[in-house]
Amino acid sequence: MATLIESEAIARRRDELLVVKLRELAEFDPHITQREFCRRIHVPQSQIYQRFGGWNELRKLAGLPPRTGGTRKPRYEVGWLVEKFRETRTLYGDDLTMRDFQRHTGISPTAIRNHFGSWSALRKSQGLSELPKAKAHYTDEELMADLHRVAWTLRRFPKSAELARLSKFSLSLYARRFGNFDVLRALYGRYADALCRREIVENLQRANERSAGQ
Fold first, then answer.
1. What is the three-class DSSP state of 136?
2. pLDDT bracket for residue 62 (50, 70, 90)
3. What average pLDDT does the segment 2-23 reach?
């Protein structure tokens, strides 16, 4: 009997961890699919049905809206595409890329090309210039330093929407470099600790130098 109770407790804890992990991944990708979720955390899709009854049930537990099939027609209306562009622009800013747009909305580049000719043409139709060529490579230090600037401004670790709005870099760049938000938060914690220790050492050195000069 005790073994059965322990097994149920372990299963419940595992379910709770799946809910937490979905929330974390949805910070970067609100439209994440069941297939992509299971691929990232290395669990079979059948487990979602067995433990929760379905993908939408798990999304509901994570505080996310259900995924519906809906109709395909709105995806091919110019006004609807422009509306989605404007919504996403409020999160990512004027440097919104096609990749960020696709990641956030699930709309394929083909739909953009079919209606506007290109991503640049859609941007121009909304009063935005072509994106400048991106720097070939940003170091981890540059990314963490800007994240630290944002965290210092907020006096806490930022939410994904806040980071997208306040950082010089896109959320997709942080995701590609560091992984999900949980990983990024942990790495930033170590970065901030190291930065704090370095500042303490430097302050002590300056204090010693002043004392020696007196």
1. coil
2. confident
3. 73
**Distance separating the N- and C-terminal Cα atoms of the chain:** 75
Residue-by-residue DSSP string for 4-70: HHHHHHHHHHHHHHHHHHHHHHHHH-TT--HHHHHHHHT--HHHHHHHHSSHHHHHHHTT-PPP---
pLDDT digits (tens, 9 = 90+) for 113-171: 888 888 888 888 888 877 655 554 788 889 999 999 999 999 999 988 888 888 888 88
Residue 198: count other Cβ atoms within 10 Å of its Cβ.
10
Bigger pLDDT: 34 or 207? Answer: 34
Q: SS3 for 133?
A: coil
Quote the Cα angle for 41-171-68, to 5°. Answer: 60
Sign, Cα dihedral of 46, 52, 56, 61: negative
What φ, ψ does residue 138 adopt, rounded to 5°?
-105, 140
| Predicted TM-score of the model (pTM) | 0.40
Rounded Cα gap, residues 90 and 39, in angstroms? 30
- DSSP 8-state secondary structure symbol assigned to residue 109: H
Closest C-alpha to 31, from 53, 64, 7, 60:
64
Q: How far is CA 16 from CA 20, 23, 29, 62, 99, in A?
A: 6, 11, 20, 9, 31
Percent of the chain clearing pLDDT 70 (strictly above): 86
